[in-house]
What we know:
The protein is of the alpha+beta class. The chain folds into three domains: 11-110 and 192-211, Alpha-Beta Plaits; 126-190, CATH 3.90.105.20; 216-290, no CATH class. It has helices at 3-30, 44-56, 66-76, 100-109, 140-146, 175-183, 214-234, 243-260, 269-290, and strands at residues 33-38, 60-64, 91-96, 112-114, 126-128, 131-132, 151-154, 157-160, 164-167, 189-191, 194-200, 203-205. Strands 2-3-1-11-12 form a five-stranded antiparallel beta sheet. It is flat and about 125 Å long. The protein starts with a helix and ends with a helix. Residues 1-9 have low confidence and may be disordered.
Amino acid sequence: MSLQAVSVKSSPARARKAKLLEELSGYLKQYRYYMVASITGLPASVVKTSRSLLRSDGSLMKVVKNTIFLLALKNTGKYVEGIEEHLRGQNAVIFTNKNPFEILFFLDKQKIMREARAGDIATSEIVLPAGNTGIPPGPMISNFNKLGIPTRVQEGSIWIAKDTVVAKPGDVISPELAELLSKLGLKPIESKLQIKTIYLDGKVVSPKDVELDVSLWKNRLVSAHTEAYNLAFNAALPLPQVLPQLIAKAHIEALALASNAAYPAREALPQILAKAEAQAKALYERLKAVKPEL
Length: 294
């Protein structure tokens, strides 16, 4: 092959790379943060759904070529020592102006379900519901039997006799189960982007450095609120949150004091009279026991 032919053939490739480099450099200038996510082994449907979800949240995700993205980082001054170790395998980059924690929290809430493949690890319990599978009797019956799923043939279809658990979290999906789940049109495997590193304030950090356990912090806030409320109540601090309860407590204590002291306050009179009546009846009963003629 002549040099001229090589030049003509390689020129479009160089043009595409130059265009990609310019595009990525533009995103790096436009957005404050970037996050590198591994997409190795992720089905195209999951990548597409993730991209759509992030776009709806005001961010952008692009599948990148590692070498070109590295050049873009150097061109825009967003290169950080050590970023190369995260640019291995197949990657996508999320560009965003939002706090990275918001993006992690957002992605964590999104459940993208896909079809099971042989060798997958079940992410949750997989249950086949009782009823008509729509699968005609034939070779598939042996799959049902091998997986221990009770069936019957009815109306020209295989019916599952009762709800059956076919996999628990952590179980490996067998080829037979993967085939059956596909035939049933079920998508039981939860799949999501795995964030590898985040560019934050001029350095790259691990996702665990910005992730928060929301349930843990929620419990801490509830506990702190309860402790603060108890402190204010027991110290009789006149705060709006505790004033109604403090006034109610003071009213009950004042009423009890007036009643015990037989102070004829209008609010205490019913209790004082009731107490006096009870004491008079008790005295009468004791006297009557001594002198029945009374």
